[in-house]
Amino acid sequence: MERIQSALNKARKARQEQRENQNREAAAPASESTQDAPLETYVIPKDMSVASREEVWKRIPAFHPKEKQLASSRIVAYRSSHDSVPYDVMRTKLLHQMRANKWSRVAIVSPSQGAGKTLTCVNLAFSLARQTNFFAALIELDMRRPALAKALKINDDCQFSRVLSGEDPAEMHLRRYGKNLFFGCNKNTVRNPAELLQGANAGKVVDEIEAQFQPDIMVFDTPPVFAGDDTLAFLDQVDCVLLVAEAEKSTIEEIDKCEQELAARTNVLGVVLNKCRYLSKHEEYGKEYS
Ligand SMILES: Nc1ncnc2c1ncn2[C@@H]1O[C@H](COP(=O)(O)OP(=O)(O)OP(=O)(O)O)[C@@H](O)[C@H]1O
Ligand SMILES: [Mg+2]
Questions:
Q1: pLDDT, mean of residues 105-112
Q2: Domain-embedded: residue 56
Q3: What is the structure's pLDDT at 10?
């Protein structure tokens, strides 16, 4: 893990130096790194009061999974426990950076398949929603291999792709857990995911959902970056990304290339190293957020 971290730091440093040299040559001021931006704490202001938001959110159909069912999908952050700690730490660090920059939309991405994006997203969303008076939304954009509804044990016909295509209103395909967390999931795969994500309607739909329900944060579960152009095309709609890498599988070159692609388009919050087998006391359950 330290080897990966130090290799990534080295690659970032080299890129930073290269950028600085280019900037010096162009006699232009060096660009600011969002990672180094001074951190301040404040709450993202919202127009609607908590009570009004609760009222509006009641329009979204609720679902009531059993805790055992969630646990069988490795969803652990719906309550505070030893297992939720890594996700709670991730939540705190993520919110700190997002609030400091007034960001409200984050995409969870990975270079290739199966790194743990969906599991990270869903646990992060539950962890966020355990905060009182905090409203969180998780939208699934991976319509080639949708997995969220299955993980959450949502059995009815929710198909968020129909909202993206403009065919149905959002309430029809969103599902609410408790008062302050909703999910946009897909039961079935769709034939044209790239067109749905790249179409002008995707941005409009996300803006409308944000205006209507005013979540404090919108988390997006995405397809793998190198599996197509779906994710990169959607990055215009988010403020930042969190990169999930799979321990012992994602290579340093792959992570670095992915980070470069992402950094050219949006703000990269950090790298989650998922599925670690060798843990220090402080990194139990296999995650590090750096
Ligand atoms: N930290 C972890 N510990 C154990 N198993 C994990 C962990 N993270 C993910 N998994 C398991 O790995 C598999 C892939 O995880 P997940 O579906 O979250 O990945 P993904 O990146 O969303 O995949 P895809 O690219 O197909 O969308 C799942 O079976 C999940 O339960
Ligand atoms: Mg997934």
A1: 95
A2: no
A3: 65
Q: Structural domain of residue 243, as residue ranges? A: 62-289
Q: Give yes or no: residues 153 and 85 share one domain.
A: yes
Return the pLDDT at 278. 59
- Give the ligand at the shortest distance from the Cα of 284: 1
Q: Find the residues whose C-beta lies inside 6 A of ligand 1.
A: 74, 110, 113-119, 142, 145, 147, 224, 274-275, 286
Distance 246 CA to ligand 1 centre (A): 9
User: Is the torsion defined by CA of 71, 73, 74, 80 positive or negative?
Assistant: negative
Alpha-carbon gap, residue 151 to 41, rounded angstroms:
34
**Nearest Cα to 73, choosing from 142, 29, 119, 23?**
119
Q: What is the CATH number of the domain that holds 238?
A: 3.40.50.300
CA max distance for the chain: 61
Q: How far apart are CA 263 and CA 18, in angstroms?
A: 15
> Among candidates 250, 59, 39, which has minimal Cα distance to 170?
59
| Structure-token pair, residue 199 | 């179409």
* Helix pair 252-263, 2-25: axis angle to 10 deg: 40
pLDDT tens digits for range 241-257? 999 998 878 888 899 99
Q: What does the pLDDT look like over 117-176, one tens digit per residue?
A: 999 999 999 999 999 889 999 999 999 999 999 999 998 889 999 999 999 999 999 999
